[in-house]
Structure formats: structure tokens, C-alpha cells
Write a structure and sequence with these properties.
The chain has 464 residues and is of the alpha+beta class. It is 23% helix and 31% strand. The chain has three domains: 96-180, Nuclear Transport Factor 2, Chain: A (Roll); 183-290 and 425-464, Nuclear Transport Factor 2, Chain: A, CATH 3.10.450; 301-420, Glucose Permease (Domain IIA) (Distorted Sandwich). It comes from Aequoribacter fuscus.
């Protein structure tokens, strides 16, 4: 067929010969070629397409693909579509937060109106069965989250820096979630030397006033921080500091502490026993919580000590002074020296406002010249509970607390009676191995701090 086609082309290029002069087989080949061209020409690119649109030609039959070719064909089709029309990701809806501080007299309805929400939104939020939206207090913060359309999606009630209640708006009601933030805990070690008072030494060491008061309360059963401290005494404390978002938030718990007074060192370690009870104990496992405080108030100075022959400052006569006077500013908190029951809470001309507390069967403590009384007769009180404030009521020359201590009805010197009182409770012998294991790091830290302080003091003595 190919050779005949080539011969026909060559024959077309030569001068036309008469039919009678050409062999019969050549004439047949030329006829075949002409017939082929007549059929194919309309479909060639070089043909006139518009002239052949109405030609009634048989449609080609669809080619049947093999089954294993379908996935490849489908994938190729998908790829082409993706290349032509890429999908455009829709931007997520943006949530906007607005925070409002609760002011005196504010309610949920007022705050939501201020924030631009409808009364219906406030009604639905206020009907939430759980949570705290109906208990708002000045200083707290309320936050509202809205979509771009203005739809309320979430309410955050910030109770404190560490706690918040979150209300998620779903299907026309609110779902409540409580969120608690855990601050980062960092351990700090500080030491100080007494020059005049515990407070000044603590402040010089970089301790906060609250932490200094905690130290005073911790050792309040063994040290009188007015009369006992001497120049050169030292204090050491290992405690937690709390951080939020890498910013200082507050002091945490005292982990261990030591106070060296006139050469004797007192230690205290924070420990939770096997039954879950928390307390502070010395290295022998003895509780630092004694039956009575050495001093029953946040004192500043003592103006008069126990003196049976003391001359009364008002009546100018020799009258026994059966207690200790703690001079302090008016309003200074007065603490219960120990656990007990209030047996008297009243006023008279001599004592002014006074409170008497019974501790067990043998002991009674008395607190005179109070400005205000915070407890009533027959009320149960615990050690360090505030029972009143310092004043100058009754026969008094100035604001102070007159404190008395009685044993079986007999007045005793509050400064020395502690030596005669029963010893503090100790950890059980079976608890001591656990106590020593858990406080080993704290004991090592205190020992290091004490050693460093002693070396510093020695270097000062040897400096010419």
C-alpha cells in the first residue's frame, strides 16, 4: 500500500499521460488514493472546518478503557482540575475579647448592658445554674468574647489571678468551666543578721513583711522577738516564691527556717505526715506549735515587764503587776495565746474592754484595755485567732495590751511560764525515718546557710 501511495504521488507530479498509455494496475492505484483523500480530508486540520459542520458523518464509537486504567485516568483528571481551580481556604472567624472591672453597685445586667449586649443575653447568662455570675464583687473582672457578627460566645469571670469561671455559649445556654492556673514555684534562700530587731533584719535580707510575720509566728512558741533577740543573732529561711507568666506573683510557703539566738539554734521544717497532717517540726520531730504563744500580739515593744512590786502609773501606789504590758499602736491585732473557750468578754472601769480565755482545766489567759472585742462569751477560739485590738480603755495611760497568765488561779510570769508547760507533741517514732528522708534537702540547705553566715561573721571579726 505504501509503495502504491508513493507511486501515485510521483505520478501526480509528472505530466499527465493518457489513460491508454498507463498500465491498468497504475490506474487502479490512483483511484484508490483519490477515494482515500475524499474521505479523510474533511477531518484534517488543514481542512475547512466550517464547511463541514453540517456533514452527516457517523460518530466514532467510545473506546472502552481497561479497568486498571480508570484510577490513573481519574487521578489525571483531578490533577488537571486542581491546577485550574485551586481551593481558597476560608479565614477562621476572629473572636474579640472585651474586659470590664466590677465596680461598686454593678450587677451582671449592668455590666452586660455596658458591654452592649441585649437584655435577653443578660437574662440567659444570669439563669446559669452553676458558677458565680450572680455573685460579683468590686475589683473582679468580667470578660466577654464575641464573633465579628456581635454574637456572644463566651464569658470569663476572673475571681482572682489564679481562678476563673468560664461560660461557653452553646445552643442558647451556657456551659460552665472552672479554670485554675498553677503558678511556677521557685525556691529562694535568704539569711539575715540581727542588729536591732527581727523586722529590720528581715527587711535587710529582702524578706517581705508578711514573710517576716510568718517567721515570728513560726518561732512564736520558743522565742520572744522583743526581749530574746541580741545583736549578732541570725535568721535563715528557705521559702517558695510564685511566678505567673515569668512575673513575680507572691511569696509561697516557708519550707525551712532557723533562728540562732544567743548561740542556740532553733530550726523548723515544713512536713506532711503519713496521715496528711501538715505542720512544722524541729530536727527532733517536735512540733513547733506550742500550747501557748510567747507573746499574744503583733507587738512593737514591751513597756513594762512582770513586777510584783511595781508602782501603778495612774494611782501612784505600789500594786502588783501580775502580767506583761505590750505597748503597741491602737488597733494592733491581739491573738488568742492558745486554743480555748472565752469565759469573759465585757467592759469595766478598771480593765476597759477585756477578754478572758480558759485553756483546758488549769490555764487562763487575760487580755485587758482592748479597743475592740472580736469574740463573745462561750465562743471557742484557736491559737493566733484575733480576739480584739490594742486600745487604751479603762485605767490606762496609753494604748497597750495588758496580758496575764494564770495556772490553777495563780498568776504566773508569762515570760517564764512556758518552761513549766508540757512539752509539745512529737512525731511518732515510726514517722521519723520518713520525716528525715523528706526534710534532708532542707536540713542540708539550712546547714549551708548557717555555715556561710558564721564564716561571714568570723571574717568581720578578723578584719582590722
Amino acid at each position: 500500500m505504501t509503495s502504491l501511495f508513493k507511486k501515485a504521488i510521483r505520478a501526480g507530479r509528472e505530466p499527465l499521460q493518457s489513460a491508454t498509455q498507463m498500465p491498468r494496475k497504475h490506474l487502479a492505484a490512483i483511484g484508490f488514493v483519490l477515494l482515500f483523500l475524499a474521505v479523510v480530508a474533511p477531518f484534517t486540520p488543514s481542512g475547512d472546518v466550517s464547511a463541514n459542520r453540517d456533514a452527516e458523518l457517523p460518530l466514532p464509537q467510545p473506546t472502552e478503557l481497561a479497568s486498571d486504567a480508570l484510577p490513573a485516568a481519574t487521578e489525571a483528571l483531578t490533577d488537571n482540575v486542581d491546577e485550574q481551580e485551586p481551593e481558597v481556604a476560608q479565614p477562621p472567624s476572629e473572636i474579640t475579647w472585651a474586659f470590664y472591672q466590677v465596680r461598686p453597685g454593678d450587677s451582671l445586667s449592668k455590666l452586660m448592658t455596658r458591654a452592649g449586649f441585649s437584655e435577653r443575653d443578660a437574662y440567659i447568662a444570669g439563669k446559669t445554674p452553676e458558677g458565680s455570675l450572680t455573685q460579683l464583687f468590686p475589683g473582679q473582672t468580667l470578660g466577654f468574647a464575641t464573633k465579628p457578627s456581635g454574637e456572644l460566645t463566651e464569658i470569663q469571670h476572673k475571681l482572682s489571678a489564679l481562678e476563673a469561671m468560664v461560660y461557653h455559649h452553646e445552643d442558647g445556654k451556657f456551659r460552665v468551666e472552672r479554670q485554675i492556673r498553677e503558678p511556677e514555684v521557685r525556691i529562694v534562700e535568704k539569711s539575715g543578721e540581727i542588729t536591732s530587731s527581727l523586722f529590720l533584719a528581715g527587711q535587710a535580707a529582702g524578706l517581705s513583711d508578711n514573710l517576716i510575720m510568718e517567721l515570728a509566728n513560726l518561732f512564736g512558741g520558743v522565742i520572744d522577738f522583743v526581749l530574746d533577740p541580741r545583736e549578732g543573732d541570725t535568721l535563715h529561711v528557705v521559702y517558695e516564691t510564685l511566678y505567673l507568666d515569668d512575673q513575680y506573683f507572691s511569696d509561697g510557703n516557708i519550707i525551712a527556717a532557723a533562728f540562732t539566738n544567743k548561740g542556740e539554734t532553733f530550726t523548723a521544717y515544713r512536713y506532711t505526715d503519713a496521715s496528711g497532717r501538715l505542720g512544722y517540726f524541729n530536727e527532733r520531730g517536735e512540733s513547733m506549735r506550742k500550747a501557748f504563744l510567747m507573746a499574744p500580739l503583733d507587738f512593737t515593744r514591751i513597756s513594762s515587764n512582770f513586777n510584783p512590786r511595781r508602782v501603778h502609773p495612774v494611782y501612784k501606789t505600789s500594786r502588783p503587776h501580775r502580767g506583761t504590758d505590750y505597748a503597741a499602736p491602737k488597733g494592733t491585732p491581739v491573738f488568742a495565746a492558745g486554743d480555748g473557750r472565752v469565759i469573759e468578754s465585757d467592759y469595766n472601769r478598771a480593765n476597759g474592754n477585756y477578754v478572758f480565755i480558759q485553756h483546758g482545766e488549769k490555764y487562763v489567759t487575760k487580755y485587758l484595755h482592748l479597743n475592740k472585742r472580736h469574740v463573745k462569751k462561750n465562743q471557742r477560739v484557736s491559737q493566733s485567732q484575733i480576739i480584739g485590738t490594742v486600745g487604751s480603755t479603762g485605767t490606762a495611760t496609753g494604748p497597750h495590751l495588758h496580758y496575764e497568765f494564770l495556772v490553777n488561779g495563780v498568776h504566773q510570769n508569762p515570760r517564764t511560764i512556758h518552761k513549766k508547760l508540757p512539752k509539745a507533741k512529737s512525731l511518732a517514732a515510726t514517722e521519723m525515718p520518713r520525716f528525715k528522708a523528706q526534710t534532708q534537702i532542707q536540713q542540708e540547705a539550712l546547714a549551708r546557710l548557717i555555715s556561710e553566715q558564721q564564716a561571714t561573721q568570723l571574717a568581720k571579726l578578723n578584719t582590722p
